[in-house]
Amino acid sequence: MAYTKRPDGRKMDELRPVSAKVGIIPNADGSAMFAFGKTVAIAAVYGPKPLHPQHLQNPERGIIRCNYNMLPFSVTERARPGPNRRSKEIGLVSEWALSKVVSLEKFPGTVIDIEIMILQANASTRCAGINAAAMALAHAGVEMKELVASVSIGKIDDKIVADITKEEEDWKEGEGATDIPFSLTSRTEEITHLQLDGKIQTHRFKEAIEAAKVACKKVNEYQVKALKGEVIDDAGVLK
Amino acid sequence: MTKENNTRKLVVPGEVIVSGEDYLPGDFTRKEGGEIIAGKYGLADINGRVVKIISVSGIFEPRRGNNILGRVTDLAFSGWMIDIDGPYSAFLPIMESPRFVNKNNLHEFANIGDVINAKILSVRRGSVDLTLKGRGLGKLEGGRIIKINPNKVPRVIGKEGSMVNLIKDKTQTEITIGQNGYIWINGDIEGMKKAEDAINLVAKESTSSGLTEIIEKFLEGKK
Q1: CA A231 to each of CA A139, B144, B207: distance values in angstroms, whole numbers, following the listed order
Q2: How far apart are CA A229 and CA B197, in angstroms?
Q3: CATH architecture for segment(s) B144-220
Q4: Which CATH class is domain B7-55?
Q5: What is residue B118's three-state secondary structure?
Q6: Please, what is the average pLDDT of chain B?
Q7: Which residues of chain A have pLDDT under 70?
């Protein structure tokens, strides 16, 4: 069966329903929740605060430490708790995706801790995590040049689609599935993070970048609305 | 106040606040191609030509002249290390203590865990220096310490101290507020409890209008 229609009936460039809210963790300096349909991520930001041990300090700029964690109940078969290869990698790419926009030079010798927790996973968890973390950073009053929006672009069979689900990620027929998570800055639309899992032709990749720009703009609109106090709950996470 | 609120709007990092060559970038903003861009989440305030951002959330940012409450974390060679719950820990040199202290007996004046009320003398990259020279500054004895969001401190103080004086009067307590969000309360147990609840209520309802009435009502009720 060729891939002509998306399993959940969305248009090719349509995102899943989004939920977004800031200030969900009172004890943190800043916090946010972001959900793409059934993928739900929360992020908490602590700092900038003094960094210990001292040898990790950078006298020229602050550093970001980002932890990505998938909770045991977030997937159908229990995920073993604790850090693993995958979570370390995603933590690191999230850190890189965000450190580009944070004005770290204003706080030398300090650290900003970001904790990303995946409550429920249905593909694109790193994108939801980065979106939540960017909102949490802004909410924590950290000086930032702009925001970061993240979305996964997929090539399912021969179609370029936005925000893929687990079902699409596992597509086997035709050309199969390619998953490309993008993170773009909100104002200058620079790519701060890009990964590619699968195969894609160069001319199709250019299409994917254009699709990412369009999709990230939509994500950014949700982020801005949520930061301005609106509670967005199209995905029904908060009900 | 209400008039000012009308001109202030919530902005997010990267947002264009105003465009046009007439404006100048102030705190937490930058100018890019004739546009003033927000560099932080907060309330944009346009005062004449200058555009700045007023923080609404986040950690305490030490500024020179701030009064703060801090806890002694370590005794160094020539002073005390103080935790001020900001991005950096602060240093209180012996020279800045109100009376003579012997270098070998630092603990006699303030030991680890003691809380002091100090003023920020200087903020340089990565270090904050404090002083105890000034009226009302020094070590705090007795009472209790509570912590609120540092951005709510102006609300707790009120216009020329109206809010804090109201709470002091009604609960018969002494209150010292640090700009870093630490608040010291001393008095009888009932009064301290009441003052603490009242301050937390101010912090919670900080955006409500008629805040003073809410607090007055709270302090009058359930004595």
Answers
A1: 14, 37, 18
A2: 26
A3: 2-Layer Sandwich (3.30)
A4: mainly beta
A5: strand
A6: 89
A7: 1
What is the model's pLDDT at position A1? 65
Secondary structure letter of residue B21 according to DSSP: T
How, if at all, do strands B79-83 and A63-70 pair?
A: unpaired
Q: Which residues of B touch A229 (CB under 8 A)?
A: 10
**Cβ–Cβ contacts within 10 Å for residue A174, how many?**
13
Instruction: Tell me the domain boundaries of chain B.
Output: 7-55, 67-140, 144-220
Q: Quote ipTM for the complex.
A: 0.89
- Preferred mutation among B16, B37, B43, B57 to probe A, highest tally of A CBs within 10 A: B57
Strand extents, DSSP E, B148-217: 174-177, 182-186
pLDDT tier at B36 (50, 70, 90 boundaries)? very high
Question: What is the enclosing helix (H) or strand (E) of A63?
Answer: strand A63-70
Q: What is the pLDDT of residues A154-177, one digit of tens each?
A: 999 999 999 999 999 999 988 999
| pLDDT at residue B2, rounded to an integer | 41
**Of the candidates B185, B40, B203, B194, the residue with the CA atom closest to the CA atom of residue A26:** B203
- In this prediction, residue A112 carries a pLDDT of 97
> What confidence score (pLDDT) does residue A197 get?
94
* B67-140 topology per CATH: OB fold (Dihydrolipoamide Acetyltransferase, E2P) (2.40.50)
Main-chain dihedrals φ then ψ at residue B53, nearest 5 degrees: -115, 130
* Torsion angle (degrees, nearest 10) of CA A136, A140, A144, A147: 20
What is the model's pLDDT at position A3? Answer: 84
- For residues B202 and B214, give the distance between their C-alpha atoms in angstroms, rounded to a whole number: 9
Sheet containing strand A232-233, strands side by side: A63-70, A110-120, A39-50, A30-36, A18-22, A232-233
Residue given tokens 């604790």 in the structure block:
A82
Q: Which of B12, B63, B180 to mutate to test the interface with A (most CBs of A within 10 A)?
A: B12
> Are residues A180 and A154 in contact, defined by beta-carbon separation less than 8 angstroms?
yes
A109: nearest CA in chain B? B126
Mean per-residue pLDDT, B187-214: 89
Domains contained in chain A, CATH given: 18-229 (3.30.230.70)
List the one residue out of B206, B210, B145, B198 whose CA is nearest residue B172. B198
